[in-house]
Specification:
Shape: flat
Radius of gyration: 26 Å
Distance between the termini: 55 Å
Helix content: 40-55%
Number of domains: 3
CATH topology of the largest domain: Rossmann fold
CATH superfamily of the largest domain: P-loop containing nucleotide triphosphate hydrolases
CATH class of the largest domain: Alpha Beta
Strand content: 5-15%
Largest sheet: 5 strands, parallel
CATH architecture of the largest domain: 3-Layer(aba) Sandwich
Strand order of the largest sheet: 2-1-3-4-5
Length: about 450
């Protein structure tokens, strides 16, 4: 998990000590929140997820252990690291026995603290092999990307329902930020595998020389540094779902290793003579055109492409589901107001109208991040155009651009032209028909033909 996605709460009555801990952890990229009283810590825990709590520990008081029990009553997965300036070995053992992950002494050793946090996160991830933790973590941190009524997302929702109960391999395609992993998790959570692990792998980050060990695990002594047996991703995902993200960036060697498992249904951990059965369902995702890459130059193996592409889900970019932007903004706003303990805010109609005209190169992720930023930074309850960053207003220069790509059919081009006219020029059907140079009846027919009837409209055709 990226450090920026890790949220740590530092609770210390000593302001100097709290600032030091915050500084050490912030430099590592973690999100850090500080508090000086237990009441504040409990309120923060009730409103947002903390992966780790770093808590000052007074051996003469029991508040640390009591607080740990209360916080875990809210989020059972939070790990605790206690820091004390006067404890004994007996105190440390007692704290660990009652559920703390680690116990450190003051004065704080930055390197020791960083290592303790890293190990606590590793422990949290390993415990999550039963997936209950990861499901809770995700449900508390991810808003809904399916809000809206676009035909494309409705079709994807129906397809998820159809394939979830099967073990069919799925390839999810789409631009970065469209929600490919969210769809993969939705398939998993609606399947009979939902109680088993969902393990995500960033294929682009797998080192060439460690691909086999990362995917299939290794035994002690298999190579220099292999001091103990270690499970690979296929073993961690046993009985569940293995999500191979950025599959298009997997090296040729990795592609061959994966293909062998998909064909044989077995794998061998590095250094082991024992074959193990692969029981995880495979869902892959890419922002590349794998079919083209498999035919041109052999960048991606054609045989692997056909093994993965049994069921294909194509995630639409946000610019092609502009009718969903208003409900997405509403959903994201409610989610982040609750998460960050802000009073409920709303976006003025003019802001949403502007959003519907922009290109959103970062797609749903970009919209989500912008909404979160505005919810946190805008002090008033009604968010208007003046609250937007300047770059958003500059985006209006693309107001009348339409997305036409080589290879599109004439029907697709016509549908896109009508969509963009209704969204970016006028939602008045009569005015749109005049702009397009066709009759109102012809426009109505084309709207129905291309399933554009859910687009925003201000007046009805007579």
């Amino acid at each position: 998990m990226e450090p920026s996605n890790i949220h740590i709460l530092v609770l210390d009555r000593d302001a100097t000590s709290a600032r030091l801990i915050e500084s050490v952890l912030s430099k590592e990229g973690y999100r850090v929140t500080t508090a000086s009283h237990e009441t504040d810590a409990l309120n923060l825990a009730a409103g947002g997820l903390f992966n780790i709590v770093v808590k000052s520990f007074d051996a003469r008081r029991i508040d640390a252990v009591a607080l740990m029990e209360k916080v875990r009553g809210i989020t059972p997965d939070t790990q605790f690291i206690f820091i004390s300036d006067g404890g004994t070995i007996h105190t440390a053992v007692d704290a660990l026995r009652k559920g703390a992950f680690d116990y450190l002494s003051k004065p704080i050793n930055p390197a020791q603290l960083i290592e303790s946090v890293r190990k606590a996160l590793d422990h949290q991830s390993l415990v999550a092999e039963d997936q209950q933790i990861k499901l809770r973590l995700r449900r508390r941190s991810d808003p809904d990307i399916f809000a809206g009524s676009s035909t494309a997302m409705k079709d994807i929702s129906r397809l998820i329902q159809q394939i979830a109960s099967t073990d069919v391999t799925v390839l999810i395609e789409g631009e970065s930020g469209t929600g490919k992993e969210v769809v993969a998790r939705a398939i998993h959570e609606k399947s009979r595998r939902k109680a088993k692990p969902f393990i995500a792998v960033n294929c682009a980050a797998l080192p060439e020389n460690l691909i086999e060990a990362e995917l299939f695990g290794h035994v002690r002594g298999a190579f220099t540094g292999a001091v103990s047996d270690r499970k690979g991703r296929f073993q961690l995902a046993a009985g569940g779902t293995l999500f191979l993200d950025e599959i298009g960036d997997l090296s040729r060697k990795g592609q061959g290793d994966l293909l062998r498992v998909l064909e044989d249904g077995t794998f061998r951990p590095v250094g082991s003579q024992k074959l193990e059965r692969a029981t995880a369902r495979i869902i892959a995702a890419t922002n590349k055109d794998l079919e083209t890459e498999s035919h041109q130059g052999g960048v991606f193996r054609e045989d692997l492409f056909y093994r993965l592409n049994i069921v294909s889900i194509v995630m639409p970019p946000l610019r092609e589901r502009a009718e969903d932007i208003a409900p997405l903004v509403e959903s994201f706003t409610a989610h982040f107001c609750a998460k960050h303990q802000r009073r409920l805010k709303k976006f003025k109609p003019g802001v949403v109208s502007l959003f519907q005209t922009l290109r959103w190169p970062g797609n749903v992720r970009q919209l989500r991040n912008l909404v979160e930023r505005l919810v946190v930074t805008v002090p008033h309850s009604a968010i208007g155009l003046d609250d937007l960053p300047p770059s958003m207003h500059q985006g209006k220069r693309e107001l009348h651009a339409i997305a036409i790509q080589p290879g599109m059919t004439l029907a697709q081009v016509e549908a896109e032209l009508i969509r963009q006219t209704l969204l970016k020029v006028t939602s008045n059907r009569e005015e749109a028909a005049k702009t397009l140079g066709i009759s109102r009846r012809a426009l109505q027919y084309k709207i129905q033909r291309y399933k554009l009837d859910k687009l925003p409209r201000h007046t009805r055709l007579g």
